[in-house]
Queue: 2 jobs
Job 1
Amino acid sequence: MADVVARDLTLSTAHRRLTMQKFVGRKSTIAFFMCLPLILVVACLVVYPAFYSISLAMMNKSMQHFVGFGNFTFLFKRNTFWMVVEQTVLFAVTAVIFKALIGFIAAHFVHNLPAKGQRKWRGMLLIPWVIPPAMSTLAWFWLFDPSYSAFNWVFAQLGIPQVAWLGNPYWARFAVILVNVWVGSPFFLIMYLAALKSVPEQLHEAAMIDGANWWQKIWYINLPMMRNIIQITALFSLIVTFANFDIVKILTNGGPVDQTHVFATWAFNWAISGNDIPLGASVSLFMAPILALAAVLILRNVRQRGNEA
Amino acid sequence: MAQVALRNIVKTFDKTPAVQGIDLDIADREFIVLVGPSGCGKSTTLRMIAGLEEATSGEIYIGDQLVNDVPPKDRDIAMVFQNYALYPHMTVFENMSFGLRLKKFPKAEIKERVQGAARILDITELLDRRPKQLSGGQRQRVAMGRAIVRNPKVFLFDEPLSNLDAKLRVQMRTEIKKIHQKVTTTTVYVTHDQVEAMTLADRVVIMNAGRIDQIGSPHEVYHSPKTQFVAGFIGSPTMNMLPCRLVENGSGLTVRLSDWLSLPVPPSRVARYRARVGKELTFGLRPEHIIEGRGDVPPGAAAFEAPLDVVEPMGMETMVYFIVDGVEVCGRVNPAAAGRVGESMRLVADLNQMHLIDPHTQMVI
Amino acid sequence: MTTAIADAGHTPGVRYGSISQGRRRTLYWSYFFLILFVIFFLTPPVYMFITSLKSSAEISAASNPWWVYNPTLSNYADLLTQKTYLIFFRNSAVVSLCVVTITMLISVLAAFSLARMKFWGSATLATGVFLAYLIPDTLVFIPLFKTFAFIHDKTGIELINHWWVLIILLPTLTVPFCTWIMIGYFASIPKELDEAALIDGAGYIQMLTKIFIPVALPGIIAAMIFCFTVSWANFLYGLAFTTSADQLTLPVGIVTTLIRGDVYAWGQIMTGALLGAAPPLIIYAFLMDYYIAGLTAGATKG
């Protein structure tokens, strides 16, 4: 087939070929077939389920009848639902803000180091991202254990009162956000470090001569030039944090008293543990609008960067 | 406005010496050019004056102040970078006023200074644009504007024209000269292009491998180079250099270049060169001093015939190349008189402009 | 231009410290804060390691949790000889390797055609791929669960509670991003290479295998690493679609089976978790640059 393509490319129309061969040999056909597996995977396992979940959400528990918005009204009336909404949004926004801050600050410190040493430190600081989140959440779970918490042990030595990390609702929320920040900061660190390196050093020298001190350099030069990366990274992270499952499931399973549930874990509990698939589907659908908004913003940002470049 | 002094400046990077002992006095309002090949230490020296690099040893004075330990922003200098270093997210006005805004100058004064500089540089209508909307030459002017606005004691230019195309470079060269006439601040200008050095400088500082080979006015370094490097660096096309021997010839001396070519030393130089008779030397003569031989030969010059190897018509002049003992020698002739390749042509060498160089010390005799 | 303005930068009577002293101070502060960050980031893994060396007796004795008094490798020995744990490991390994292979095949082909062969709709498809990456697994797992149950009812093919189902499912998470990375790498290969190859007589398949893949090899390695890490770390799909002990992958297995009722065998759990984190960590240790390239490729090349 390769020669057919090559000959086709030389545009020798003098040759008469079978119509079928010609069709198969055309560049765009080959290209389409190369894409076909991708299209199949995405269509069957991503797009189709996403739409199916809409129809699922409108069925009753045993999935025999169509109940329209019945599941949704059921949810709106429940207090837990509104708690879950508030919690998911709170976790996502707080976690992303802290991740961005830590990533930004750490990136600047790493960038300050002599080039040889940077690799070492960057290597150490990326480890939370490399460890599978489920595994590291287990470690945090153990660190927060009600009876054996290593942190509480240190507190006891220092005379500080013990903390019910996972038992107290407020501390539990703190714990979930903390683990989220722990897992996600390295990503921000790496992205910001790369962005920082792309700011030309001469701009800093010019600013030095113009009289800028360290924070003026960050404010007037680094921040504006990193603005694109900052936006995109924050949006990506918002999506991922918003839909996060592993951390909450393993750390608290939504407890205590549903105070740390997020959409993903609550939907899971309804659908898999509670055997009410349509209700689970309706819960998870509520993630869609936020995700769509974030996706639109990301696309716009990427297009903008393409134009600016 | 201030003078600049460098005393025995040494700079080593990780055991590699970049600058090996520089002494330089720059007078107030002078336009001095540091010129030399890549790696000679000129940019490093400039950056040490700016404070972007720290001198390993030696002292730097701006005005009467020892500034070794003073950070760049307190040295009252302004710098124009090779890549302009304009802040891409700020408008031209904001770029030029950045330094003043940081020092909390009053708004009215900032506006006045920026517009004044913009007028000198002819960029007033560009004040609201962003750098990416400007051409290379415009960006370079904005970079200069940023420097002018600060009204510093010293301007520092780090190869500012290297990124421009040839035509623009010539244009901007003239602009810079005009600006220096208007804004007479002391200027230290670094370039690797000797044409820029010759046209812009009050004095030229030729640097080679971390040391200063010669300091002098453009006229001095052109006519009286002190070292072989300076002789070969200044002037385009490069000075012809051939190995030679001095031979006694009656009461005078002859420079023997090859079996078939010997040229007489002008009487005024005989005394100077007498001590070097018989030694191996290097003979230097610029192409512009080898011209077509027509009519009488002026005093001090000598005529000879040489078969032409390459002929390059340049329009205004023609470069002719002939070979002497394996070395290609270049002459500059009137296009009308130029011979043809392979043919012999009569040429006249103005030996009043000759140089003899000691090959061991590399110094001009 | 008065002398007053010319003196604006010079404050008489102020002494300045040496510049290098200032730079050294910033360096010390940087190291100080970085050490704090490293302590924050490395405490959990280090603690996992410490705990893994403790016997259950020592753990329940509630002595200093940060120090091992009687280090023992019994946890490791128990786990590595325990059949269940080894099955978890095997399941994860097979699933991950298969997913990597399938994903790379799909992604490389698709990326090549999207990056190089412009056909009608290729730009929309590329954007679509990007958007598909943004759809999280938590949105999609419920309808998939239902679909699989449905297929079981209709055709008798049991898709739930088999570990190999993950090989079908996990590519949805990896293919979009890997395609996106590869598009970026392929697009950055200069068109002149294509043209030189065409003149030399190569067809598209040959261009792909002889030029694009070798030149974009760093990108391919980065994508493979990303793919492996995501498959290995996957928790949700495993938890939702597999329940019997011998069908579980490692993350799910450790979390569900090592926690029996009220008794938590923490020594074993931490050992299990550490061993579970080992493959990605080892890959990271040796191929760190590719790892990071894979991370940054998505956003910066986009």
Job 2
Amino acid sequence: MAEAMGFYTDTTVCIGCKACEVACKEWNQLPAENGGIRELSGNSYDNTRRLDGIHWRHVKFVEQFSADRRDGRWLMMSDVCKHCAQAGCLEVCPTGAIIRTEFDTVVIQSNVCNGCRDCIAACPFGVIEINPASGTAQKCTLCYDRLQHGLEPACAKACPTASIQFGPLRELRERAQARVQQLQERGEARAYLYGADPTFLGGLNAFYLLVDTPETYGLPSHPRLPTRNLAFSALWSTLGAVVLGLLGLFSLRTRRDAVGPDETSSGTSGEGARHA
Amino acid sequence: MPDTFFTAAPHWRWLIVLYFFIGGMAGGSFALAALLDLFGKPQDRPLVRTGYYVACLGAVVSGMLLTADLGRPERFWHMLIQSERGLPMFKYWSPMSVGAWGLMLFGGFAVLATLGALHETGRMRWTLLQSLHGGVLGSLIAVLGGLCGFFLAGYTGALLSVTNRPLWADTTWLGLLFLSSGTSTAAALLMLLGLRRGVRTSAMVHWLSRMDRGTLLLELLALIVLTVSLGPALRVWMNGWGVLLLIGVVFAGILLPLCLEWRPRLLGRLSLPAGAVLVLLGGFLLRVVVVLSSEGV
């Protein structure tokens, strides 16, 4: 297996130019939404609005303004699939369409996916969606085809501020840690890394440098695997089935006792029953 | 805000709501029919056969609904066979994978049980089918099919819980809720079909009525525990969905039928059928509320 690769996104230098979105769409030949007739969001300067089957990169605009709009700040974050070390989508996929590659990234094989959409519900970040052109679930592949030929992903290549950095995870984490330290020394005490360590989901192969809470950026603070609920769900259901089975047996027994031999003798149906 | 609120909806809508309702009813019907088949009396046979017919029809419709809901319906078999290697595709930790196999097995047992029932009534006369009802093979089909039936009724709830969506993933009680609801709707449907055949006061309708009462109480208990377990995610139901749940499911679908079964004189001859229809309505609305309320977040 090749070395684990990933993205380190420094949100403090993102300028919201959306070059990454364009490069991603261009390289991966993703279709335009609504036939290219864009509907404006109406409540934001961001009109992409979300990651989905045809937007594998999305520059989030966090626009925080006072009511009179005299005071405000912009936060920008180029969002993408996190390529989790423990990936919920890969875990639940019933067709085996989602695989982990030799670069430790997570890829959906479009020729295998049947569009059941279990992965969409399982992803703790809301990254995956159906691509209407293929009818299958799609998301960032971390440019698997480019990686196989020694190229860096299109988004990282296009990013003009090096907000999106691509490379071996080990190197990226060191670089990110140094940047956090630098920012804190310069007075940005809120700077921290989201997903760089294995605190949740075994670590994210696409991790972020943030300067506010994860929720501010539309990220969950403690993303978890969907199978966390499996054992107890199965346990309660099994116990319920046992209770219902016993209820059925008990009520049949008491019915037999209550009705007694009269019922049997009055059984005139002539059915060839198992117990006849 | 709970972490589940940062996720995307899978667009499981009416086809899935219908599958959850029909699949649950089919599973419950087989389980109840199997209980009567194995431990009932000769006069229960018509109800046993009806239960198997309902299960068989439900399994077929369920498969069609699930296939139609796929983005690529022609690839439905990818759930069962690895498309590139030809080997079986099975993940015991993925409810959807286990469910695909469970539905297929259930369908197989339901078809076998139905063939046995048709032979029993003389509608199919192949001697080969005789072994499918009565005897060791018939008992085996009833036991395994019954277990698959309980599985089919309950796994759909577990499937929802093994996601990261609001409400669904915020509780582990959906499996039990759907299992009890599936069994109660099956008892109600079989009761209605039994009444239609003119078996008004027989012991089998009485038994179904008792089963219905027990399953409705279990359903109510599961719903209460589930609601408490939701914590902050309960906000998903703090709107019209919550009202529909209270009025359509709890009051009309559970409490009213229980009243009608305990006090059958309230509506006279109509008490039993009215109660059964309300249980069916409540079971359907339960799936509507659970599935669509989370989809709307």
